[in-house]
Amino acid sequence: MPALPDLPEATVARLPEYLRALHNLAENNHETVSSDWLATAAGVNSAKLRKDLSHLGSYGTRGVGYDVALLIEQIEYVLGLTHRRSVALVGVGNLGHALAGYDGFATRGFRIAALFDADPVRVGEEINGLVVRHVDELSRVASEESIAIGVIATPAAAAQRVADLLVAGGVTSILNFAPCVLAVPDGVDVRKVDLAIELQILSFHEHRKASLTALPAAGESPLTALSGGLAATDPQEAIGT
Amino acid sequence: MPALPDLPEATVARLPEYLRALHNLAENNHETVSSDWLATAAGVNSAKLRKDLSHLGSYGTRGVGYDVALLIEQIEYVLGLTHRRSVALVGVGNLGHALAGYDGFATRGFRIAALFDADPVRVGEEINGLVVRHVDELSRVASEESIAIGVIATPAAAAQRVADLLVAGGVTSILNFAPCVLAVPDGVDVRKVDLAIELQILSFHEHRKASLTALPAAGESPLTALSGGLAATDPQEAIGT
Based on the number of CB atoms within 10 Å of its own CB, is B210 exposed (0-12), middle (13-18) or buried (19 or more)? Predict the structure, then answer.
């Protein structure tokens, strides 16, 4: 297997969007796509898209664009989607049920191989053909089933223990929905989805939009109005979405 | 109201983690915190934390660290959490139920003010004291209730229409869980949480970890093994989590 290039994290996050748009094109029998069209479909500007794809050695053809089937193959290879990956889902409350039923996983080669919970009421429940097991079995099953990715949908108080059990079972990638920071060894990747944080980021932008339309009070410097002060700084990067 | 500084997006994303750790400290009667301790609790390195907080004009005291109560006040102000923000949740399937019941919202001043769905079976259901309304009422209710943030937890096919209705009702911030890209006017911020994309990002890292432990086949250049080629490039940034 050739060594894969190290890609900027932001590029890695955009590749799945390109892939989704490309699959839609393929389903509608398009054989080529321009960078402008693909960029719009993925919600990015086309210069960024061309830069991203150049990392994969994909440059398109002037006047024609990219070959859809080839680009799909290249992106799926780089994202490792040509290998089916087994996923363990831990925590089968509302969020766990939502994740267990999420269509988008299976179409990208992710197979939810096992479900776990600590609540005896939930253990034994059947969801989408899988029977929920007790979390005490997690390390053993993760190891036996060669589970690559663990998804944590438990309360915060349980999450670190679950992470420890996943790591003990050989899992090296974790998707964490619990509102807490996990401690993991080097070599274990963690992605975090935190709903409260997403709302707070939106709140920041709302607050800033409101402040930009307001005037400072007469005689008051905008910079000292708060105890401790908020110093204006040079923006390091534009606020993007 | 003083004009708020424009902060790098990455800093904005870390402020809520600092806030969570600070609230834990305050609940345990700690009055000061060192940058090292706070950085560890938030899962970042302390130089990055100090840089982030300097954007707010917070520099700490040598040998002592930061004043917990003051830092909470500054971060809550910048994030706009001193204003209670009304949230509309659209789509009350499993994911919507999980979001509606998520404790972390209320503690940060976010009030789920209204629930909507297009399914007549779900309309009229009571969740956490709120009655689910039909999505046809969305624009009117969003306007009447001064809803600031819309959360879209619908299937992809419905999401753009819901976004249009939210925008028509005066909503300027959207948190999108549907696996699609939304088109919105300038001035409307969209944050996207896409579960399939998160798994694909993890898959990329898994694939790369596997490839780094494998050797190229004898006689084969790693760079040409794939049709179209994968060109090695200079990493622009380290893969972080």
Answer: middle
